[in-house]
Amino acid sequence: MKVLLGFIASISLAVLLLAQSAPTTPTISQLFAFSCNSNFSSCPEGFDPTLSPIELADGNFYGVTWWAGQGSSNNGGTVWKATPAGLVTALRTFAFDSSGKFPNGENPVIGFAAGADGNLYGTTESGGSANAGVMYRLTPSGSFEVLHNFCTVNGCQDAAAPIILGKDGNFYGAQSQTVFQLTPQGSWTQIYSLSSSIGSFVGQLVQGSDGNFYGPARSATGICADLLFRLTPNGQFTVLYRFPELEKVTSNMIQASDGNFYGGAEPGIFRLTPAGGFKIIHQMTQAQGQPPTLLLQASDGNLWGISTNGGTAPNRPGTLFHLTTAGTLLGSLQFNCATKGCNPVGLVEGRDGNFYGNAATGGNAPNRNPLGTLFKVTAGLPPR
Fold first, then answer.
1. CB neighbourhood size of 21 (10 A)
2. Which of 116, 193, 322, 334 could form a disulfide with 311 if both were Cys (CB 3.0 to 4.6 A apart)?
């Protein structure tokens, strides 16, 4: 009898643990709709949000929009601040001056990163002294400073590009044939020049645990074919993999906890070892989210991502998907333009275990014109 009771207790415990560990079906909800009034004369928080939000130490999220802001719908975008509950305010508006120019930058949509000092750093598409964008610093309290005006180095070598925070506290980016460093004070330095016979840099860098930089480049040979590279700090450039013609990288690259790099490409989700071993681990369908446009590894160890234009035709409102690092798809959800926003363009896991992101269009804003959303994904992950 004791043996039987012990067996039953073991089975009950196993069932309980299984129930506790059973995955939760993710749900997407709108937290805030970026919007304009009826005649589009007032869009105070900006509209057309883009890039992934950033969660700072204060527990709030920060992000950017393409257009408008406080004071005029003709302003050049915002950096916004949001509480986890979805209360959004414009922290900074990129405003035009009395001559109609944008000396402090316009359209802050090229790069956005948190610095080692807890402040926000970004790069704008235009504005500044050469109307080619600026690098700026913005504190969580709203103090703003232009650090660098792009296109002020001979031949415009210093064009604006996405930036990442390096392990040394400086920022790094790549554009055209140049990999550059920007210090938190705005000092720009070219650290590598790629031969045009090899190709040109596209997308965002990722710095590996080995200190090297990895990323995609557009090959100078072939038709619309990309390559994946490694660049050491001392300037040794190595092509790790070449895609076939008409295949290109469509998302950022990340380094996962297994030491390998993952990213999205037109065939699907790929894995790249630091030594150059390459494999498509999952062929994405359009309904699942093809092409994938952003990827991250969440606290559950799985890969989560979005596809801006994935989903069922003809609307293709975008999808949220997740899969294991072995390539097993765990699920995919479509966005709803009317209630959640559509065409997702950013995603981050919050410290509370939920995901937060931006949808570029759609949303629910009664008596106003909705033009993108801040959304939340509840997936049952515990707080970190």
1. 8
2. 334
